[in-house]
Amino acid sequence: MSHLASTNSSSAPLPQTPSTRFQAPRRLFSSLEGVFNDEVFFLILSVFIGMFSGLAVVCFRLAIDWMHLALLGPLPQTHSWRLFAVPSLTGLVVAVLVLRVFPGIRGSGVNQTKAALYIFNGFIPFRTAIGKFICAALAIGSGQSLGPEDPALQIGASIASALGRQLQISREKLRLMAPVGAAAGLAAAFNAPISAVLFVIEEVIGRWSAGILGSVVLSAVSSVVIVRWFLGSEPLFRIPVTTFKRPTELIAYAFLGIVGGLASVAFAKSIGYLRPRLKALPRWTQYFQPALAGLLVGLIAFLGAPQVMGAGYDSMDQAMHGQYAWKVLAILAVLKILATTLSFVSGTPGGMFAPTLFIGAMLGGAVGDLERIFFPHLTGSTGTYVLVGMGVLFAGFLRVPMTSVFMVLEVSGNYEIIVPVIVANTFSYLISRSLQPVPIFDLLTRQDGLILPSLEEDREETILRVEDAMLPVPATILNAQDYVDANASRIQDSPDSTFLVRMHPSGWNIVSRDQLQRLFQEGKGELTLSSVLSAQSLPSLYPDLPLDSALRYVNDYPLVPVVNRANSRQLEGVISRDSVFKKYGSGRAIEVPSPT
Amino acid sequence: MSWTFPKLVSRSAPVILLVLTLAAAIAFAAVSHLVSRFTANQQARGRTLYAQGLADASAARYDDAIAAFRAALTCDPSNSQYQLSLARALRDSNDPRRLDEAESYLVALWQRSPQDAAVNLALARVAAHRGSIEDATRYYHNAMYGVWNSDPDSNRSKARIELIQFLLKKGAPDKAESELMALATALPPDPASHLQAAQLFAQAGDYAGTLSQDREVLRLDPANPTALAGAGEAAYRSGNYATAQRYLQAAVNANPEDADSRQLLATADLILRTNPFHSHISDAERNRRITTAFAQAGDRLTECAQQRGLSLTTPSPLSGLQSRWTATKPDLAHLRSPGETDLPDTIMDLVFQIEKQTADTCGLPQGIDLALLLISEKREAASQ
């Protein structure tokens, strides 16, 4: 090509050949290549993941709606034969697809995405997305008591993983693709980007990671933009007027939190008990389990509670506007727990987000209305209790306390109820945690034979810090500005073999007794210590850093200074290999005297 | 079995992004096509369900209408017309629990287009169902000054009339009257509208306004029997008996079956024949009327005491009046004396006191007694 270019330049103008015609774009691409470093490229890729996930979720939602209309009709009537015939027959089809064509798409998809991140290096087969799309749309559209959010999360993660593999990005980045796609999928399905980001951090990634936050947020926001472009920006529910006037009413919300916590435990325990038992049944029974679940859910609907079918957002909307008496709300909450448990443990693909919200909404409305019967002065509307109830179940059942608070705020767009939400969610979370120590998603992964990290474990874990292994400030600290002979005489009475040297104007270094004596013998006693020591400073640590961060230095340096964050010349203590290992071995904190 | 994409792109970042952009554009176009087809199908289905809902609502089958409108909204969730109709059906279903939901739909619509008169009117009706005068008045006013899709003048008048009826029902005639004033100035030259306004003025107790509106009707339709009767009654209630007599006579002539007007006419005639304070009568006629009224009052006193089984000799309001009546009777002879200028008033005051007291004790009288009572009320009103 360069040869062709020089020939052209030395002769008369010639008609452009294809090679010369593409020179400008190539130069442009070459210059652009320099712009895209790995981080920038990954961020841009996150936007594309969000777009593709958003488009997939739009199609997914259309598919569910279309299935629902085609199978159950626009106006499902109680006592119609369709109510139990459709979910049971569709259950058979779903079972065949799950067992024969798309293995590994059972359940919600949150655990599979988490497993992809921690076990399979971000690998989620693309067929999972296809299988999840078809089977979840069939199941939810036919009325199984499951929601579309968790499958959407897995579809997003699967798309991201496939894209990452196709682009042959590094293993490290590929591992991060799954949560980025998961956030996009969930945000699109839920129309709530903040809650989606928090959920992915709390439940999928399982730990706070600043490195991925930007990508997760970008993908979530871009997917929501796509969904709103196509399906409009209508919220999932029409939010009624919510009020919180008197602080004493917090007692009423706390009671709702307690009831919600107990309901969460009952829900989680019923799933935790039934799921392994149904899985342990002979394989041929698994072909009929979704059908049986569909039949029972349909029967509940046939007998007068069609609200329990599908995601149930319409019913939540009506509950929010006081359309049901408290007894009806309570019955619907119980029936939804039953229906969702049946649908979920049967292995039917579908999520638990929407059913959790449904149960919380009904329970919140029931408790609120009941409380108002006994205490008519309570000012909270039914809608307020319904909204708080949603958060309560989210906190208690899914065990995502932060997501639960932000979800209610994001869905309602009302910050007035933040205090009731926090109070009720805290009670629910604490009760659920004390009665059901293992969160539902962890329980499910353990039942599947996997152990994955969780933010809840992370929260409970005692983190060892540098200060826990820190030794007191040594009695002898040398000064780099002093002469070698002066320093040599200072260490004569010291029992230590290694000494820290305070460098000028800043920094620390280290010198051994042997090294100092050798310098003295070599006749360098009248030189300053700084002139004979290497210019490279000793790394220093801060007391609040995790102890893990000391490990990278203690093998190379016998002593590592621990300094004050406000003044790096102020020594707080020192770290040595022995002190670190001793701390890891004993698990007990070392008493460190005050630096004063 | 694992599915993988064919290797389509090179590792060059700009090329990758270009390919991704193209892929996104193609996917976007495909999903757009899919969504528009799906939306079109859904909208068609929604229209069918909406029509079904409208039919149910017009037949007052509100539960069916609500179900149909809800189903229509699942097909076309952002359709304002469906939301408005659902809200109306929820409101009209007479289930107080549904008012909240109706209101939330309407508030959402109102937030989208606060100038929409139909939405404001629907919200006003919800507020009226709740009995909130303040909210209802605000939304009715919004509806009056809002944007109507068709026939704005007529719709505005209807909205104001509805507000007036609501205010009258809630016992706020002062507010209703101020709305009526505004209504009267904007009425079209249509007898029916003026007739309705006249009835509303009458309900608000503003007989001058009633008379004015009925006169307007009669200007447009001189033989309108309802307006004649209305004008007659308004004049009668406002104490303008001569005018009342004229209109009521015309009303009875136009509609001989109108018993109410006939009765009012009879009373008006009696009043005009009995009233001693009428300005166009001679002194002799005035004295004759005073004498007749005095005698009538005495008879009424006796009848009332008998009716109630009271003795006019034992102390009571009636016996006190009887004593005064007996003491005043000789003064009738002095009516013709030129120096007794206060005597007619003194005698008629006693007559009016007797008529009022007997009305309180024995109920409303008939005939001349009723005429005397009404004359007393008119004089009292005039003096105040």
Task: Kindly list the characteristics that best describe this protein.
heterodimer, A: 596 residues, mainly alpha, Clc chloride channel, CBS-domain, 3 domains, 3-stranded mixed beta sheet, two-stranded antiparallel sheet, 27 helices, 4% strand, disordered N terminus, disordered C terminus, B: 384 residues, Serine Threonine Protein Phosphatase 5, Tetratricopeptide repeat, 17 helices
* Radius of gyration from the alpha-carbon trace of chain B, in angstroms: 36 Å
Please write the string of helix (H) and strand (E) elements of chain B. HHHHHHHHHHHHHHHHH
Text of the CATH class of the largest domain in chain A: Mainly Alpha
Radius of gyration of chain A using CA atoms only: 31 Å
Percent range for β-strand residues of chain A: under 5%
CATH architecture of the largest domain in chain A: Orthogonal Bundle
Strand segment count of chain A: 5
Describe the secondary-structure layout.
The complex is a heterodimer of chains A (596) and B (384).
Chain A: H1 2-10, H2 18-21, H3 23-35, H4 38-72, H5 82-101, H6 110-118, H7 126-141, H8 149-166, H9 171-190, H10 193-205, H11 210-231, H12 250-279, H13 289-302, H14 313-320, H15 326-345, H16 353-374, H17 382-398, H18 401-412, H19 418-435, H20 440-447, H21 455-460, H22 466-469, E1 477-479, H23 484-490, E2 498-502, E3 508-512, H24 513-521, H25 529-532, H26 548-554, E4 560-563, E5 571-575, H27 577-586
Parallel strand pairs in A: 1-2
Antiparallel strand pairs in A: 2-3, 4-5
Helix pairs in contact in A: 4-7, 4-8, 4-9, 4-11, 5-7, 5-13, 6-9, 7-8, 8-9, 9-10, 9-11, 10-11, 10-18, 12-15, 12-16, 12-17, 12-19, 12-20, 13-15, 14-16, 15-16, 16-17, 17-18, 17-19, 18-19, 23-24
Chain B: H1 13-58, H2 62-75, H3 80-92, H4 96-112, H5 117-130, H6 133-145, H7 152-169, H8 173-185, H9 191-203, H10 207-220, H11 225-237, H12 241-254, H13 259-274, H14 283-308, H15 317-328, H16 343-362, H17 367-383
Helix pairs in contact in B: 1-2, 2-3, 3-4, 3-5, 4-5, 5-6, 6-7, 7-8, 8-9, 9-10, 9-11, 10-11, 11-12, 11-13, 12-13, 13-17, 14-15, 14-16, 15-16, 16-17
